[in-house]
Each structure stands twice: as structure tokens, then as C-alpha cells.
């Protein structure tokens, strides 16, 4: 069996184009909510699917979703529209990779296109023993790919810092201090723990 150091020396590289994936799906009435728009969960499921295909192709291995960067729904998607999800590898770490996904919705009658969201899935490659396994390096072939790689790396650094700050959140032990923090918030304390 190869050690991590041995694997490092034999790293292969794959270009972004090797795993670029486009998934197009018709939005049928069964996907809609009571307001007639497509459920956000349907779009999330399609994003997870396309992220998996793209990641597994680059990794040459089974992959799992580790995390999803903020998903903002910029515009509603209507029944009858064609939704296309364009996925490409933005960044590779050691065993993880970041898949960037741009989602476009198209009205086939008017040819009108709208950008409904962009998001980033972090996927981790797994070996046959379900252990994280190294992924191939990424060959960047144009400026856009270099920009996306650097942006993804920055997001990882920012997330690390954010996690550190979240872990550092202190809930005051004294009721009086808690009461001060709640001032101006739309809540009321309905138990005796925090005294006036
Ligand atoms: C994600 C998972 C593989 C991480 O496993 P782990 O034993 O913590 O592995 P490690 O700490 O060695 O991390 C492996 C890689 O994942 C990355 N990673 C781990 N947790 C992460 C997270 N929450 N967000 C982003 N990246 C993460 C690490 O940075 C590391 O990347 P690198 O090798 O490129 O440096 C593991 O927690 C898992 O299998 N989770 C369940 C995944 C799943 O079932 N997804 C579907 C959910 S519906």
C-alpha cells in the first residue's frame, strides 16, 4: 500500500475541462410549491447531483458532500422552464475539491434566461474503505480558472477564520449580562432564569 508521501510524488493532474458537467432538467408541476414556483429543495438536490458527477469524474473515486457554501436563490424558477446546472472544479485540496455551480433557468418560448444561483460544494473523495483519498491535481488552462482557484482558496481561509470566531462565542454566565444582550431584540424571556 502507498503512503501519503509516496502518493504525492506520483500525483497526476487533470484539466478543469476533463470533468466539466452540464445537467439540464425540465421543471415539471410535481416540483412546484403551493405558490406555483419550484421548491428550493429540488434545485439543491440537482446541485448535489451535478456536484457529485463533476467531483467523482475528477477524483476517479466515489465522493461525498462535506459542505455547501451559502446558497442564495436570486430569482424564482417557474414550472415549464429548463434549468441548466453548469459545474466545474474550482479548487483541489488534498482529499477535497470545490465544485462551482452556476444555475440558469430558461423560458423555452421566449428564450429568456435568468441566473438563479451560484454556489460552491466541497466534496471529499473516498477510497474503498470509506477513508478520504488524495485527488488528482488541477491543471488551470486560463485566467478564469486561475481566478476561481484563488477565490475558492480565499473562501476556505475565510471559513476557517469564521469557524474560529464562532467557536469563541461566549454566552455570559450572569443573567444581567444576558438581559443586556437581548435588549432591542424581538424576544421575551418567559422563565425565571433571567431576573429583571
Ligand atoms: C466530510 C468527511 C469525509 C470528512 O472526514 P474527516 O475524517 O473529518 O476527514 P479529514 O479531517 O481528513 O478531512 C478530509 C478533507 O475534508 C475536508 N473537510 C472536512 N470537513 C469539511 C467541511 N465541513 N467543509 C469543507 N471541507 C471539509 C478537510 O479540509 C480535508 O480536506 P483536504 O484533504 O483537501 O485538506 C466526513 O465527515 C464524512 O464522511 N461526512 C459525511 C459526508 C456525507 O455523508 N455527505 C452526504 C450528506 S447528506
From TrEMBL:
Mark the transmembrane ranges.
none
Originating organism? Pedobacter nyackensis
- Taking every annotated instance into account, which residue ranges of this chain make up the domain HotDog ACOT-type? 17-129
The family note in this entry says: Belongs to the acyl coenzyme A hydrolase family.
Matching entries from InterPro entries are given as: Cytosol_ACT, HOTDOG_ACOT, HotDog_dom_sf, Thioestr_dom
* Annotated GO biological process: acyl-CoA metabolic process
Q: What name is this protein filed under?
A: Uncharacterized domain 1-containing protein
Q: Which keywords does UniProt give here?
A: Hydrolase
Give the GO molecular function terms: long-chain fatty acyl-CoA hydrolase activity
Xref: CDD domains: BFIT_BACH
Q: Supply one GO CC term from the record.
A: cytosol
